[in-house]
Write a structure and sequence with these properties.
With 301 residues, this protein is an alpha+beta fold. It is 45% helix and 18% strand. It contains 11 helices and 9 strands.
């Protein structure tokens, strides 16, 4: 499944520019000063750096990969053998996650299937997740990213209702400032945050957990409900916990105290959540209902 983005003459899909949250192998090479051929050789021999693979099979990298490769080059230039330089970098924690939740989640769970979905379908799935969270009366952690503050404004009343029963609720967008005490708390993402191109809805409670993570595909020129996103979603407790932690980490890194509180809550809950098959089926059924055009229009202001 490809993005069908046209590439400039002389560029392959792997070396054409990517969006802000993921880098092509060509961009990684330019940032680190080593060739794409050498990067591929390192991957084949040492499994480093480990790329995110799009459904098309193309490699994508994060800002953390740039820092890790630069560290390896520095260690090698100081006289270490290449394999020692890579080992040293891995032990020192230089290979961390970027603030792209999609990239980090895809890296941690390479078996997750991804799908190209329109905004219309993502909206239907998001509403289905939110509705089932209310139906289950689950007091859990609710996290969401909205890209733009005006998009959050369209869902504000709904999220305020959801936040009344949630243990913690956090909404992230290009707000002017954090509000750590509101319900839900709001996080002002910095202008260079990859999350400004991502769509995240995560609900984690012991008896109902689901994660939806997507990033907007660049270069399509689509607007409104036809905007395409590459999406992952899962009710697997491990995936949901990782999505929740990664999203909260991004908020905490932006200076949100509410996000830091969510991280503390997750750390105090070592048991992974579990979603019964009936709840997963209910989410799917609700999504199908919302995907119907008349139902979707009825829910909008």
């Amino acid at each position: 499944m490809g993005t069908n983005v046209a590439t400039p003459q002389g560029q392959t899909p792997e070396t054409a520019p990517a969006d802000d949250s993921l880098l092509t192998i060509g961009e990684l090479a330019r940032h680190t000063g080593i060739s794409t051929q050498l990067i591929r050789a390192w991957e084949q021999r040492f499994g480093f750096p480990e790329p995110v693979r799009l459904p098309s099979g193309h490699r994508r990298y994060t800002d953390a990969d740039v820092r890790a490769v630069q560290r390896v080059v520095e260690e090698r230039d100081r006289g270490l053998r290449l394999e020692e330089a890579i080992s040293t970098t891995l032990r020192s924690g230089q290979v961390g996650e970027s603030s792209s939740v999609y990239a980090a989640l895809a890296r941690r769970h390479p078996g997750l299937a991804s799908y190209t979905l329109t905004k219309r379908t993502l909206l239907a799935l998001s509403w289905a997740i939110e509705d089932e969270a209310v139906a289950q009366s689950s007091s859990g952690v609710l996290l969401g990213t909205f890209q733009r503050g005006r998009y959050y404004g369209q869902s504000r009343r709904r999220w305020e209702d959801l936040a009344r029963t949630a243990q913690d609720a956090v909404a992230m967008a290009d707000f002017e400032a954090h509000d750590d005490e509101s319900r839900p708390a709001t996080v002002a993402l910095p202008p260079d945050s990859p999350l400004l191109r991502e769509w995240v809805v995560v609900h984690e409670a012991p008896d109902f957990a689901v994660a939806l993570v997507a990033f907007e595909l660049p270069g399509h020129g689509s607007v409104g409900d036809d905007r395409p996103f590459e999406a992952l979603w899962s009710v697997d407790g491990r995936v949901v916990r990782d999505a929740a932690v990664l999203t909260a980490q991004a908020g905490a890194a932006a200076g949100s105290l509410a996000s830091a509180r969510v991280l503390a809550t997750l750390e105090e809950s070592p048991a992974l959540p579990s979603t019964p098959p009936s709840a997963a089926t209910a989410v799917f059924n609700r999504m199908v209902a919302y995907t119907d055009g008349s139902t979707l229009r009825a829910r909008r202001p």
